[in-house]
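Notes from hallway chat w/ T.B., transcribed later so I don't forget. T.B. wanted the structure written out for a chain they're using in a teaching module, and asked if we could keep both sequence and structure tokens in one place. Agreed to drop them here.
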Amino acid sequence: MKCEVGMNNKGNTVVEATLILPIFIFGMLALFEFSRCRLAENIVYEAACETAEYMAEYGYIGEGNIWLAQSTLEKYIDDSELVDKYIKGGISGVSFTGSCFKTDENDVELTITYKLNCNIPFFDYFSHEKSYTLKQHIYCGYVKEQDEEGEETDNEKYVYVTDNMEAYHTTRACTHLTLSISCTSRKQAEKNNFSPCEFCGDKCGETVYITKYGDRYHSGKSCSGLKRTIKRVKLCEVEQIGACQRCGGSIK
């Protein structure tokens, strides 16, 4: 009798595992797809913010248009392969229809619309439309104001710096602020004195990614170590570090 009870328990365990394991695998795959879809959404949002900043700078010399915004967005997309997979139509599927590039208040209003595709295992693509508006004030230059004695005085000038504070930049569009990422072999990177990234170095395969002025190699373009933080500060606060050789000559 005891032997029969033991066999029944084993049979119940097998049946339960057979039922639960596929559900667990499905849940893990679905969670993976949703997280990758969310990452693609964040990549587009970050690129859209950079595009709005660029269009605000461009507004100093002229009024922008949808085609300029589209080409600028493509430049700021960090992981085009991920975007092509989870955004319907890829980068070209991101629409700026309805955007206003110069309002009465000298603002740029970018309306971004696209469809997210999430491939749920055993189901068809789940499509969800995203739409939001980003607003950025146009950089109209500085205006000379008058002091108490009626003499003209300049407003504060603003520049851009990165975390390492090596130099200040007069425009956010300076090419020194845009990371130039290239692909190479791990052996070649180590031969050129590149060391593994502290964030993703343990995940690197035979192919790695490096930047022109960096000293680390990365497993992929989406690594946080390949992101550059840019801050807008007053020139008087960072004047001592010196201007960028490429764009700093425009400050007078």
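Follow-up for T.B.: The CA atoms of residues 162 and 228 lie 7 Å apart. Might be a good example for the class.
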